[in-house]
Each structure stands twice: as structure tokens, then as C-alpha cells.
Amino acid sequence: MRIKLNLVSFTSAIILLIFILEWILYGEISFLQTTNLFFYPAGLFLILGVFGLVIRSGSFDFFHYSVNRATRLFRKSSSVDDEERPISHLSSHFGKGYIVLLKIGLILLSISILSLVGFYLFER
What is the pTM of this model? Predict the structure, then answer.
């Protein structure tokens, strides 16, 4: 039986692990440490998600086409079938997994910002 993780359960597991890590490292849960610890994974997920979004939008299609065309021209043994085969775009091969990464990153970033607001309102 295969366990399928959805967005809510995966995000909840990450949040729980970050709070456990905060409790182990600092011995307490405070707004400032929560802000710091949630910011790092949020940044990682957002960077990966934006990278996927840029590739999926077709920004690197021309570069991918040029590299494929150049490698076909410089190959020593070029067959007729290789010349007739069309070169596909990079964005057509890239899936939509980046949407999940963006959603997780935005959820973690919102928790980080809310805990920063809580720090300035209640602990400062």
C-alpha cells in the first residue's frame, strides 16, 4: 500500500518538524526563533518553485533549441533520421510540480512573517 501525501499533510509535517527542531535547539518556542527557522525552508521552496515557473514559462526554450541544434551539427555521425526529428521545447517536458513548491514556500513564509509581527507586537 502506497501512502500518498497531499499538500496539507506535507506542509503540516514540515511545520511540526520545524517546531520540534526549535524546541530541541533552543529549549523554548519564541517568535524570533520561529521567524528565523521558518524563513530558511520557505526561501528554499520559493527559489525552487520560481525556478520551475521560469522554465515552464518558456524562457529557456530558445537556449535549449540552440544547444540541441549545435550538438546535432557538431556530431560526427549524423544520420538522416536525426536531422528530420523535430526538436521539442524544454517547457513542454517540464511538469507542474513547481506549483506545490510555491504553495509550500508561501505558507512557510506567511508563518515566518506572522511570527515576526508577533515578535514586534508582544516580545519587544
Answer: 0.80
